[in-house]
Design a protein that fits this description.
Largest sheet: 8 strands, parallel, barrel
Oligomer: single chain
Order of helices and strands: EEHEHEHHEHEHHEHEHEHHEH
Distance between the termini: 53 Å
Number of helices: 12
Number of strands: 10
CATH architecture: Alpha-Beta Barrel
CATH superfamily: Divalent-metal-dependent TIM barrel enzymes
Structural class: alpha/beta
Shape: globular
CATH topology: TIM Barrel
């Protein structure tokens, strides 16, 4: 006869095995999906506009476009992908604040892959004065890991984030780690483990479907598992990639409604968790630092709005 195991005072038999924390979180996510809150009935995506979509256009060209894309907030990007963060620094805090106010735009997110998750303190202080509460960067740790080695590395990263999460908690900010390819956070398992090990509600996920298998049910399940720890959703698919020069019509297949990924199940999952974070319609052009399409700010805005109409049609 197999002797029952006891964990936290609960007896477990082979018929009723131990429920790990990870399985518990998955069960909670599925239960939440099955019992949609009344708030989700009027669910809408909260759009934010990434400045990098306009390449290195000037802020005074981009800010008038924010409202036209259905957004109220700007996600500001630094050099390589854009240079609007450097523009803001050059003009000075007072002038940048005045420019935001002139166009009725708020700063909602600062994306700083260049700083990484362990050097965000100064950026939090700077962006916080404009009301910014979300900070996106990549993970920190070795790449190419799997299984127990990956789990241990994600746990170590979560431990390293404790003082940074404490700072974010103190100012009501959130640190969103993107599942960037070729890094610690490149797999669905790494995302799940970060959600499990995160030392604070201030640490969560910026989910980029581009870097994950283009499998709608799996992506939707991952959204549900992230739950309240999902801070940013990139409406961005892989299409034909973004690492080489290719015809614009092929490059644009990263955008919602152009490639083969059906965003319907993903939007449904966002609705089910009553997602309150940012949705960024997104892609990368090649080379980086150019607008996603030619024709100036109006053309970029038009392409973003085409994708937004597609996403809103899935609600």
């Amino acid at each position: 006869m197999i002797k029952p195991q006891t964990t936290c005072g609960i007896r477990h038999t082979p018929q009723f095995p131990m429920l790990t924390r990870r399985h518990f979180l998955q069960t909670v996510a599925l239960t939440a999906a099955a019992t949609r809150s009344p708030a989700a009935e009027g669910f809408k995506l909260r759009y934010i506009l990434s400045s990098s979509m306009y390449g290195t256009m000037k802020l005074d060209e981009i800010l008038p476009e924010v409202a036209k894309t259905g957004a109220t907030h700007l996600d500001i990007w630094p050099l390589k992908h854009g240079d609007q963060r450097e523009q803001a620094k050059e003009m000075g805090d007072e002038a940048f604040s005045a420019l935001l106010a002139k166009h009725g735009v708020k700063l909602g997110c600062s994306t700083r892959y260049d700083l990484g998750p362990l050097r965000l303190a100064g950026e939090m202080k700077w962006a916080g004065q404009f009301g910014c509460k979300t900070f996106v960067c990549g993970g920190h740790g070795p790449k190419g890991l799997k299984g127990d080695d990956l789990r241990a590395a994600v746990r170590k990263f979560a431990e390293e984030m404790k003082p940074h999460c404490a700072l974010a908690d103190n100012i009501g900010a959130k640190i969103a780690i993107e599942n960037h390819g070729n890094g610690l956070m490149e797999s669905p398992d790494s995302i799940r483990w970060l959600v499990e090990f995160a030392p604070s509600p201030a640490l969560g996920i910026a989910l980029a479907p581009y870097h994950l298998p283009q499998d709608e049910p799996e992506l939707a399940a991952l959204i549900r598992e992230c739950g309240e720890r999902l801070f940013v959703f990139y409406a961005w698919q892989h299409g034909k990639g973004c690492t080489k020069v290719q015809p614009k019509e092929d490059e644009l297949m990263q955008m919602p409604g152009r490639g083969t990924l059906d965003f319907g199940p993903l939007v449904a999952a966002l609705r089910e968790i009553d997602f309150k974070g940012w949705t960024s319609i997104f892609m990368h052009p090649t080379p980086r630092g150019i607008p996603i399409v030619e024709g100036g700010a109006t053309a970029v805005t038009s392409e973003i709005n085409r994708a937004r109409a597609y996403l809103d049609g899935k609600l």
